[in-house]
Amino acid sequence: MMRLMKKAIGEAESGRGPREDRGVISARIISAARDEFIEQGVSGATFRAIARRADVDPALVHYYFASKERLLDAATTPPPDFLDNTQTAISAPLAIRGQRIIEHVVSSWAAPSTGPILYATFLCANVDERTREKLRASMSANFIGATSQRLPQRDRLLRAGLVSSQIVGLCWHRYIWKLDPLATMSDRDVISAVAPTLQKYLNGRM
Amino acid sequence: MMRLMKKAIGEAESGRGPREDRGVISARIISAARDEFIEQGVSGATFRAIARRADVDPALVHYYFASKERLLDAATTPPPDFLDNTQTAISAPLAIRGQRIIEHVVSSWAAPSTGPILYATFLCANVDERTREKLRASMSANFIGATSQRLPQRDRLLRAGLVSSQIVGLCWHRYIWKLDPLATMSDRDVISAVAPTLQKYLNGRM
């Protein structure tokens, strides 16, 4: 373990080591941090416990992530393809945009590469103001962009909030609290149950 | 403080003391426990910290509430008038039931006697299975009862879940994450934005 740390630090300092190593170790720390934040909360998570989970020395966690804030930020940042897919969904033709958005939400929560990140972000936003602000900025930018451009700005803001509220409530039932029937229905059934509501919020009569 | 504890224990044991005293002390402990559960999480909350918040001796907390489970249960149990008002809302004429339900939700979260209890219940349900089960049982019983009786049972179950999802998502935005515009809109505007969605889930075409 110490050897691994020294090797990694040595490589990082000299800048000569293979990038893969750094990436692998850093990803392992981020994933351990995410689990720790989910289980112990932001205030309860410690560098030591995260290091134990990642099976690295605590000094290495400090070396890669100088502060808990940086670690939390890394643990709640979705991968680039999630952002790309979000863009694709909110740019779909307006008439099918509600459907595309909920399809994207459902497939992202189900994917091992994004589900745990969304889960950690939602839970940490309950107790950490920065995470909440990050979430707010991302949801409001995306969902306002998804609403009909013909509507007045104030109206679009409200509709974006309603889209977000229906999605967040669904995610809480299906993925966090895991309450039936929403937790055990097929993706397809969930999508067809929720898409019309989102579509109404995006451009329907209210 | 010790005198207060001894007095309360003496009265509780002898059964002679004025009920007000017991009620007042117990309510203070419950309220302190609720704040502690919200801030420190279920696993992070301790009898000692709760006692400190309530300004009583830890032994008194143990005396009134033998276990953390009992304390958590007390901290997440709404008062009888909340249950009465829920019954009234879900028994309103079907055509205006969506409106009545969201009015009840919004006024309950705004009320000092119920808002903090709902807040604690939602947060503790994230990490505590019993709280989650309590919430599930209450929401599903109430919201299934609110859906149109003419629909098949399976359909009513789904619709109740959707009602619940829209309400929970709204509450998360307005009262927990406090994200605009849903957090700062008037109760009236929130009610008129969300009521039609609930009404559709209760008895509309889907």
From TrEMBL, chains A, B:
Composition bias, Basic and acidic residues: 8-20
Keyword terms of this UniProt record: DNA-binding
Stored Pfam families: TetR_C_16, TetR_N
Molecular function per GO: DNA-binding transcription factor activity; transcription cis-regulatory region binding
DNA-binding region: 46-65
Organism classification: Bacteria, Bacillati, Actinomycetota, Actinomycetes, Micrococcales
Annotated spans, Disordered: 1-20
Tree of life domain: Bacteria
Gene3D superfamilies: Homeodomain-like, Tetracycline Repressor, domain 2
Name of the featured protein: TetR family transcriptional regulator
Limits of the HTH tetR-type domain: 23-83
Organism per entry: Subtercola lobariae
